[in-house]
């Protein structure tokens, strides 16, 4: 028996009933749309600061103790505390022998995990369980709430009978789940419901005998909400993802996707993360495409994995593989765009140190469409060595050993050894800098020299090269409209010399012509790769001028440059290509303007002065407040592109009409062929409880298996479709932004837009 001392506070010891709150991640929503639900009541923090663990503290207006039954009765503004638990009521009885507590009338109870307002309260100390009837409850961390005919609380678990559950903060929630029984687990941050009805706006829409669901942002295995679509190519579609939480560092998602015109496709994703490795594997398989005449399966699989074993060693592998060239156009994937012309796969291991950078790599290109297959490197070893022995002097050694094999013809093979030492002197001062480089490139080939290829078996090539570049950095203060700005001017000049060597006996394995935008004018080479090193005797002249405000923000930039040839370059990628006879390159122009804190203008132009024509151009005007509010207008031209001139205008935008309504759209129009190549519009409603997205699209059908991949000049084939996605928030659904939706179109969002490679 325990003696009670009481004045304003009565304290006595009973067996402890502990309920430890679980620390959980809580991502707060937009306060303008999703206010944090107000607590059912304001519980004081530690109202009895000197209370010993396991003891009960009581504060009341009046107390009576029955010495016979050892029951203490408290009346008027009763406050009871046991460790983390607090009870507030008007009348309570505490049994000193058993530790049981009974309270009648309106009661308020909290244990740090859940708050409950009920008609009465009963604590069974022997069973370590509390019972509350006619209860309204609210979870402290997530704000989920509901009602229960009977609510029982035991350590780390809350059980509700005849109850409801919702994460909507309003009294009349858009959705709620009512069930005969709901169990909430604090340790695992998940809930279970038996004989549950899912209600939307008070109307039952789904009966579920059993369901488990997360009650916080923590991961939990279970079904995610489905996505519904419809298109001309695939017909009606539905996806129902099932998420599997394997371990804290490992999960998987299995998604059946039914397409009325094609059949059932199974999609799977597996991810894991360790201290040294990050990996993701994806597989999509359609056993029999009903829309195809041939009885064939279609698939996509992808791997991406990163390793970091130490500060010096790291590895990476990335590859997407598809069953046929039209897979992306017909079925689509989040890992590649429908307009992609190729898939790039590679795996590599890197060694990094102060002076050395060594890479062992294998890479492969899959060209989509009826093109000749490219060469893959199996493998390639690249090393860079650099040192600075004497102040401004630098020594570099680049070497590469590559083995190439053609994907279609295994007999077409080649091995290339390349070594290139370089010595350079650089000088940098605040007002100017200049660089002089002298290098010698030696290359040896062992390649297939069949008659039809007209190549040498073991050609060698030795080429010296000299490069000199100088820049001047000028700066002044200017006053415009009573505001001081910093105006900079950076003229630069470069001389480049490489003699001519006949390279016609060397095959083309990894080389292509690079674009001549402003930055590209000052490159040391005209071709990527090493199969062709162009002879050059040229001077590049250019300048860039900028305007900065007092916060060093660039408000405007204008750059222009051009190459002047002393001799025409005789080196071309392929035989039969006419040697360029112009004495200067296209004029490269770039402009950028920061019209305001949220509006930008960018333009890049390559203009041929002799023919008075624009070879390439890209112009964009963009307003961007945030990812929910942006609009971009663009214009793009390209001439002499496979004998098809391209001129397109486009618009892309995401607008937050109100905190609950968002609109997204894009539209790209082909001026050369007078048609819309791609268009999409999407409308989304979103609040704290649920979201719905309706979208429609129209895009050109590329049919890569039957043509070159370019839009046909005649009447093209188009694909139209609609999509409806319903998202319930608070039950583990995912909600990507509308900008992510626009990335699935033929022309995704780009910021900023450049012509450079």
Automatic annotation (TrEMBL):
Domain LptD C-terminal: 297-667
Signal peptide: 1-23
GO cellular component, one term: cell outer membrane
Chief site of localization: membrane
Subcellular location: Cell outer membrane
GO biological processes: Gram-negative-bacterium-type cell outer membrane assembly; lipopolysaccharide transport
Pfam families recorded: LptD (PF04453)
Listed InterPro entries: LipoPS_assembly_LptD, LptD, LptD_C
Keywords of the record: Cell outer membrane, Membrane, Signal
Stated role: Together with LptE, is involved in the assembly of lipopolysaccharide (LPS) at the surface of the outer membrane.
Assembly and oligomerization: Component of the lipopolysaccharide transport and assembly complex. Interacts with LptE and LptA.
Family, as annotated: Belongs to the LptD family.
Matching HAMAP family: LPS_assembly_LptD
Protein name: LPS-assembly protein LptD
Origin species: Pseudidiomarina donghaiensis
Protein's gene: lptD
